[in-house]
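User: C-alpha cells for this one?
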Amino acid sequence: MGLLPFSEKDSPTISKAGSGPEPNGLNPVSNASDSPSRRNGRRSLVVLALLGIILMLAALGCDSDAHQSVLSSTPWTLDGANGPVARDQLLLFNVLLWTMVVVFVLVEGALLYAAIRYRRKPGDPLPPQTHGHTPLEIAWTIIPTILILGLGIWSVFVLFKLEPGEAIALAAEQGKEPLHVEAIGHQWWWEFRYENALPDTGECSAPNVVPAGESRDPECELITTANEMRIPVDRPVIMTLKSDDVIHSFWIPKLAGKQDVVPTRDNQMWFLAEDTGMYYGQCAEFCGTAHAQMKFRVHALPEAEYKAWVDGWGKPVDLSTADNPAAAQSGQLVFLGDGQCVTCHTVGSADQVDEVGEGVQHARMETYIAYTEWLQKSPGEQLADVRTGQEPPTAFAAPNLTDLGARTTLGSGLVDLNRETLRQWIRNPDAIKPGNRMSELAAIYQTRPDHRADLTEDQLSDLVEYLMAQK
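Assistant:
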C-alpha cells in the first residue's frame, strides 16, 4: 500500500518558517530552563565543583613536615632535602612540576576563555571555518619541543650525578673514602652489612668475606645490623641493594629517591647526610603481606659518635654489668636452649658471607625455601621423612641481634624498643606486626593453639634482659 499524499500545508509535522501566531492567538513558549544546553551546563558545573573538592581534600592531606616527605612548606625551596642527592632530585622535581603547572594553566585558561568568550548563542549562525595559521602552528610546535629537550637533557645530567662514581669523586675532593653499605631486602625487614665501617683505617676486598682458614683483617670493621642504619655525617655512602626473595624498593625521602631492589641483581645508589638526625625509610614496592610494615631508619651521627658505635659493635658483652645480671645470664640459656632463638638469629658477631656474596642469611633463606617445599608434601610423606630424619630444619633469614639494645625501635620501626614492647614482641609478634615470619615459622610458636611463645613468664623476662644487654 502506498503512502498517502500530503501537501506541505496539511503536513502534521512540518510548519512553515516565519508562520504567524497559532489559531488561538498565542505564541508558542519555549521552556529555556529545560533546554539541553542548560542541563549540560549545570552538569559541567557540578563536575567541576566535585573535582575542586577532591583537589582541596588531596591538598589538605599533604604535610610538608611529614617524616617521609621531601617537600618544603614553601614552594620552590629545598629545605626538605638533606644532602646533594636529595637536593638535585627535589630541584628537578620542582622545575618539572611548576613548568607543567604553568603550561596547564596557560593552555586550559586559553581553552576556557575561548569556550566562554566565543560560545555560540541561540540563533547565531555557524562561524566561518578557517584552517591553517602558520605562525601559531610554528609557535605551539617549537615551544613544547624546546621545553621537552631542555628538561630531558637536564634530567639525564641529574641521572649521571646519581651514579656511585660521583660519590667517589666527592669523597676524593674531601680527602675521604666513601662508606660502603649493603642493604638486603627480606620479607619484611632490612639487613645492613658494612664492608668496612671505618673506611679510612683499612681496605676490605668484599663485604664481610673471610676466606676459609683465615681470620679477618682486624682493621676491616665488619658489621651486620637490621632496620636501623648508622652513618657519619658529611661522608658519601654508597649503597649496594640486594634482595633475598622478591622485588623491594629502597627509599629514604629526605636523603635520596627510590631505587628498586631486585633478586639476582645488584643495584647501587648513594647519598650524603649533611645534618645529624634520624631519617625515615620505607620499602616503596609492594612485596607481600607486611609490606606496609617494612620500615627502617637512618641515624646520621657526628664522626666521633659514629666511630664509638663502630668500635663498640660486636665486643663481648659482660652480662655481669647488665641491669639484672642473674636474669640476663638465665636469658642467654633461654636464647640458646628452650627459646631456640639461635636457630635463626646471630648475636655477638657479623654475619659473614663467602666470596660470591652468600652467607648466613642466604643459607637460612635456602633452608626456609626447602622447608616450605617440604610442607607441600602429603602427610604420609612428611611422616616418613620425620621417621628417617629427612625433615628439613626450619631456620629462616632473621635480623642480627648483636646491637639490639642500642636500637630505638622494634619490628622494623613499628614500636619504640623497651622492655615491655620487647616482651610483647617475643610473646606474640603478630599482635605488633601481622604477617611476620617469626610467628609463622619459629618452633616455639607452633606448639600452642593461640600461636604464642611457649615460654614461661620468667623465661620471657630473662630473655628480655639478655637481649636488652646486647649493646
